Amino acid sequence: MASTLMEREIRYVRIKPSENIAGYVRHFWEGEVDLVGEDDFRHFSIATSSAKLVFHYKGDFKELNPAGELKNSFVSGLQGQSRSHTQFISNNDVGIFGIEFYPYAIPSLFSISADAVTGQFIDLETLLGARGRELQNRILSATCTAERVAIATKFLESGMTALNSSPVMDAIHHIHLSRGIISIHHLAGQYNVSLRQFERLFKGLTGLAPKTYAKVIRFETAVSKLNKGQSLTHIALDSGYFDQSHFIHDFRAFTGLLPKDYCRIIGALPAPQY
């Protein structure tokens, strides 16, 4: 039986990126959990609009996907943007270091289409070859958060290519400002491109179709309001859902949990900020 996060001490921090990489990286984060005679620890990976690099520097994880399949997880790798959910389970003390990117960062940093990593968990060496193996070894050998951040920052600086403004990047900005409550047809029309062309360009840069992306942004907006004393009905309506029932339907699809169960499990962590 898995114990909840509320039952143990969580050490969790977020670190702002340096100015050089602030256009690519939303934030660094790190979490540690010590298991004291408990059965296991479960990290819930939910639907997300942004890809992340994740390093398990402490603890051996197994991955439990929505189909109920259990397999060994990578030590470090890329978690692509996703509209699905996965659990990571460890029977040992846990230490996780992560880098959360802006949606359009993957093509510029790794010279691959974001669409190629959607819904994927890709081992770092498979993704980046010898460079990935070296980065993993350095992160896992680091002795503190600041050292891990410095190593990751230097690595990302060495691989950056220029971010060129485009209609799709403007569209991403508009979707965020609207919290996902926006007409994609209207948005495509603003940039004088066909809907099909807009969808193709958008998916190549973010890994998700624009309607799906807006739906995930709306979900992320709602998640950021949980554990703040608001009713589910208020959160649902304020986040653009037709009613609480539609919100709960999307929430289960994106997390595998009911909102009340998710709140109980993540209650010891700060609410995500988007």
Secondary structure tally: strands: 10
Q: With helices defined by DSSP (H or I, 4 residues minimum), what is the helix count?
A: 11
Global morphology: globular
Residue runs with pLDDT of under 50 for 5 or more positions: 1-7, 268-274
Distance between the termini: 32 Å
Largest sheet: 6 strands, antiparallel
Label the structural class: alpha+beta
Mean pLDDT: 87
Q: Write down the Rg.
A: 19 Å
Structural overview:
With 274 residues, this protein is an alpha+beta fold. Strands 1-2-9-4-7-10 form a 6-stranded antiparallel β-sheet. Strands 3-8-5-6 form a 4-stranded antiparallel β-sheet, with no helix packed on it. The N terminus and C terminus are likely disordered.
Question: Mind sketching the topology for me?
Answer:
Blueprint: E1 10-15, E2 25-33, E3 41-45, E4 52-58, E5 61-64, E6 70-72, E7 76-79, E8 86-90, E9 94-101, H1 105-110, E10 121-123, H2 124-128, H3 130-141, H4 145-159, H5 167-177, H6 184-190, H7 195-206, H8 210-223, H9 232-238, H10 244-255, H11 259-265
Helix pairs in contact: 3-4, 5-7, 9-10
Please give a quick description of this structure.
The protein is an alpha+beta fold. It has helices at 105-110, 124-128, 130-141, 145-159, 167-177, 184-190, 195-206, 210-223, 232-238, 244-255, 259-265, and strands at 10-15, 25-33, 41-45, 52-58, 61-64, 70-72, 76-79, 86-90, 94-101, 121-123. It is globular and about 50 Å long.
